[in-house]
UniProtKB/TrEMBL annotation:
Gene3D superfamilies for the chain: Histone H3 K4-specific methyltransferase SET7/9 N-terminal domain
Pfam families per the UniProt record, alphabetical: MORN_2
UniProt-recorded name of the protein: Membrane-binding protein
Organism of provenance: Polaribacter reichenbachii
Taxonomic classification: Bacteria, Pseudomonadati, Bacteroidota, Flavobacteriia, Flavobacteriales
Length: 131
C-alpha cells in the first residue's frame, strides 16, 4: 500500500513538472526560429495568447507584447539591451494603433505620433538627441 502511494506520488510530481517546463524558442534578428548558436533573442514557449516576453541572449527583456488568437493586440513595449525603453505603443487586431513613442538610448523622446489601422496619421514629431 505504501509503495503504491509512493509510486503514485512520484508520477504526479513528474507530470506536474513536465507541464510547467516550457521549451526555449531561439530567434534570429527577424524573430524567426533558429538555432541557439545563431540566435539574437529568445522566448519561453510558443504561446499565441496573452503576454509574450522576448529576451536578449543576455537575459534582459527585449520586447513585451500581447497576443489574441495569434495576432498582436494590446500594449507593446520594446527595450534596449540596457533595459531602457525603446518603443512604446499598442496594437489592435495585428496593426499598430493609437499613440506611439520611440526613445533614444539616453531615455529622451526620439519620435511620437499616432497610428490608425497600421498607418501613420496626423502630425508626427521628431526630436534631436540633445533636446
Amino acid at each position: 500500500m505504501k509503495s503504491s502511494a509512493l509510486v503514485l506520488g512520484v508520477i504526479v510530481i513528474f507530470l506536474m513538472s513536465s507541464f510547467t517546463k516550457q521549451e526555449t524558442v531561439w530567434l534570429d534578428k527577424n524573430l524567426k526560429e533558429t538555432s541557439q548558436t545563431k540566435a539574437v533573442y529568445y522566448k519561453i514557449g510558443k504561446k499565441s495568447n496573452g503576454i509574450v516576453t522576448f529576451y536578449y541572449k543576455n537575459k534582459s527583456t527585449f520586447r513585451e507584447t500581447f497576443f489574441v488568437d495569434g495576432k498582436l493586440d494590446g500594449k507593446f513595449n520594446e527595450y534596449y539591451d540596457s533595459g531602457n525603453l525603446k518603443v512604446d505603443g499598442k496594437y489592435k487586431n495585428g496593426a499598430k494603433d493609437g499613440n506611439w513613442k520611440s526613445y533614444y538610448k539616453n531615455g529622451k523622446i526620439k519620435s511620437k505620433g499616432r497610428y490608425k489601422d497600421g498607418e501613420k496619421v496626423g502630425i508626427w514629431k521628431f526630436f534631436y538627441k540633445n533636446d
